[in-house]
Amino acid sequence: MEFFRNVKKRRAGVLVSLPSIVSEHSFECGDIYSLYPLCDWAKDVGFSIIQLLPLNDTGFGYSPYSAISAFAIDPLYISLYKLGQNIKSRKREIRFLKNHPIRIRNRKLEIIRSIYTNHLKEAMLEATYFLEKHPWCYSYAAFRLLYEEFNGKDWWEWPKEFLDPNFAKEHIFTKRREDALFWVYLQKIAYDQLSEVKTHFEDVGVYLKGDMPILTSRNSCDVWEHPEFFIMNLQAGAPPDDFSKTGQTWGFPVLNWEALEKTNYSWWKDRLSYLEHFFHLYRIDHVIGMYRIWAIPSKDTTALHGWFHPQFGIAKEEFIKEGLDPKHFETLGLIHEFIPNHYIFYWDFWKNEGYQNLEEEIKAKLFPLSELHIEEEEKHWRESGEKILEIFDSFSSMIPCAEDLGSVPAFIRDSLFERQMIGIDVVRWTRSFTTGEFIPEELYRENAISVLSTHDTSLAMEWWKKEGDMESKLQFFFDRLGKPRPKSDEETLLGLLEFVFQTSSLFSIQLFQDLALGLPDVLEHPEDHRINVPGTPDHSNWTYRFPVLIEDFASDFQRNFAIRKLLLESDRNT
């Protein structure tokens, strides 16, 4: 398809959290209809990519990265206006920066339920036809109905008979078919609306980029139906680093790639095939996890006792060969028998008091064991990750983009480079490996996306004002280029946008809030316009609402002129 072949050109784009982008025809929060005025504005000023955060159903939760289905679109995003229900629940003026997604979703469900009930025969036929074409919706509908009935309680705490998904599906679709098909009907509506958006984008020459989390909530229909695809006694996370001395525990079960391989990765194939109905490109969240992932016992509250999975480990015989008894060091809390007769060394084990108190002769024998299989494990991890990514390429014609932030091991960085995977470079973190200084525009990776902020970071202006040394930032982003130092927030943001668009990166995609020229509240109080603060409670995030209707934002001549000029000068207005 010619449209796909043309994507890899120098382009600029916008990243949005869909519920935050409210239109004149939205019901309280942004929805699928919001993408039409957003697309028209983007095209007008020269953007040709719009990137969305995940749209998956979050149930009673808030984070789109912890959804109850890897497939289902959240009914929150269904446009009532597109359904002919021009219902508005508030005034044109946006007074608050927070949505109430559960309340909004419930109100939408009431309205769509009445449509469903009033046209029951036709609606059930439509849902049944959709179910036949998309069998994943069978388990989703049964799970969603039970999830609602038990008020979001974890599925393993449901009545015993519903722990068997096959029994549950048969029971629900036999005894409560009308209710089950309502959840299918919702997915059919969302599918129709979002696939129509993709067609509209193609007509006007804008690409739509989706987001695919690689991890799945433990309390999801996917884990409920296919526990064999997950290692249930482990959770994914990140090892300790400069930002967190105890690491990160995410709670998501670790993927069982061996079990997935036995099915020819059918679950992944189905996911990618479904996403392709809506998107031209997609972001692989935490692509490092395709190679290896930090696995932690599921009951642990810190990541200190984790290890890179999969791992060969050190065999009992290898300890004995050195005259060491592994059980002794396990008692000291230095190692862990993660599979029979094979041990992993805990992160920073050498800092442990038990290690420090060992005799030097013992240390000299023990420490080298911790590094014994590094080369062969890295080779194995690289081969495994490349195999998975190769298979993903065969499942879809969408262009994959790798979220390769954080401490990326050299072997993974080399692998992604050789595979020509499009990565991501965040300006504030993109620095010289040798000097630690910011790097100039022309030294950015060509096969990457340059950004000022992500959904997990502070906005560009908050970073500018509150994080790092101001003088070094002024010298690099202004003095170095011979530009006058900024006298206002507006001039600062313009300078940062000019820099990021001028980078040699293939794409430059900016968070919507970082384009808020002319909006004093966003510029002066950027901390109030953040989407997510990692490590804080779920309900305090993911509810952000942009303070201006998208139609009003799009009508500002001065802002449009400034952005259009930046994109023209950076040759990104493809």
UniProtKB/TrEMBL annotation:
The residue range of the signal peptide is none
Recorded protein name is: 4-alpha-glucanotransferase
Q: What organism does the record attribute this protein to?
A: Leptospira bandrabouensis
Record keywords: Carbohydrate metabolism, Cytoplasm, Glycosyltransferase, Transferase
The entry's localization annotation reads: Cytoplasm
**Reactions catalysed, as given in the entry:** Transfers a segment of a (1->4)-alpha-D-glucan to a new position in an acceptor, which may be glucose or a (1->4)-alpha-D-glucan
Classify the main location.
cytoplasm
Tagged with keyword GTP-binding: no
Any one of the GO BP annotations: carbohydrate metabolic process
Q: What is its EC number?
A: 2.4.1.25
Query: Per the similarity annotation, which family is this?
Result: Belongs to the disproportionating enzyme family.
- In Pfam terms, one family for this protein is Glyco_hydro_77
